[in-house]
Specification:
The protein is an all-alpha fold and about 220 residues long. It is built from eight helices and no strands. Helix 2 packs across helix 3 and helix 3 runs parallel beside helix 5. It is globular. About 40% of the residues are buried.
């Protein structure tokens, strides 16, 4: 039993730290070997990254983000798989990963929407849940053009499908708690939307700066 708890602590720490890491800084330093803080507008926001590295850089960033999110979740499944609890390991790692994405320790606990992070974590637990959640997010982002609306719908679908498709109570609870974390973090943005203060995304211009907003 002691090894089970040791594995949980290791998984939680690894996943949270992975979620806290800035994918933009990782790509800039380890792929392009340049410090983004000394280029362009001197920040590590998506708009500055795109300005320096272009659309090809965004593709690279997307790939790195997926790999960075996948690794701790798969490692979590592998570690608890030793105790025949692989699915629990992936669900717990996904929870901690999203926690780190929403409240990153390396960015003064100011996170982002965690939309892709949620989808990757969900796919590792139940591919159908993650795939459907991501599809809803992409559809609504293109149709409504509000990040908060698309992420809110994604999380609602994720939680609802988890309650329907997952039989193991502890894993279902972890998925629901993961969704609740995002909902809590989304509350200020939803209030802005209700008050008519959130801007729509415009695909006719460079919209990357609109993803820079922190909670």
């Amino acid at each position: 039993m002691i090894f089970f708890w040791i594995f949980l602590i290791l998984i939680g720490a690894l996943a949270y730290l992975a979620g806290s890491l800035s994918t933009i800084r990782i790509a800039s330093i380890f792929v392009y070997h340049r410090d983004l803080r000394r280029l362009g507008r001197g920040n590590t926001w998506l708009s500055n990254f795109r300005r320096i590295y272009g659309n090809g850089g965004i593709v690279t960033l997307f790939v790195i983000e997926i790999v960075k999110d996948l690794l701790p979740v798969l490692i979590g499944g592998w570690l608890l798989g030793i105790k025949e609890q692989a699915l629990l390991g992936r669900a717990f790692a996904g929870f901690c990963l999203v926690l780190g994405r929403l409240w990153p320790v390396f960015n003064r606990f100011r996170g982002s929407y965690a939309s892709l992070c949620v989808a990757v974590a969900a796919i590792c637990v139940r591919p159908a849940i993650g795939g459907m959640s991501l599809a809803v997010f992409i559809f609504l982002l293109g149709f409504k053009r509000y990040m908060s609306v698309a992420t809110l719908a994604e999380v609602i679908v994720y939680v609802a499908l988890s309650m329907i498709l997952i039989d193991e109570s502890i894993i279902m609870t972890l998925c629901i708690l993961t969704g609740l974390l995002v909902l809590i973090r989304l509350t200020p943005k939803i209030m802005q939307l209700i008050q008519g203060e959130e801007e729509k995304l415009s695909f006719k211009e460079d919209i990357s700066y609109k993803f820079d907003q922190k909670f």
